[in-house]
Amino acid sequence: SKPNYILAIESSCDDTSAAIMADNKVLSNIVARQEIHEEYGGVVPELASRAHQQNIVPVVDIALKKAGITKDQLSAIAFTQGPGLMGSLLVGGSFAKSLSLALDIPLVAVNHMHAHILCHFIDEEGYDKPEFPFLAMTISGGHTQIVKVNSFFDLEILGETTDDAVGEAFDKSAKVLGFPYPGGPLIDKYAKEGNPKAFQFTKPKVDGLNFSFSGLKTQILYFIQKNVAINPNFIEENKADICASIQHTIIQILIDKLRLAVKETGIQQIVIGGGVSANSGIRQALKDGEKKYKWKAFIPKFEYTTDNAAMIGIVGYYRFKESLFADSSVVSKARIEF
Ligand code: KG4
Ligand code: ZN
Question: What positions does the entry give for Fe cation binding (predicted)?
Answer without folding.
Answer: 112, 116, 307
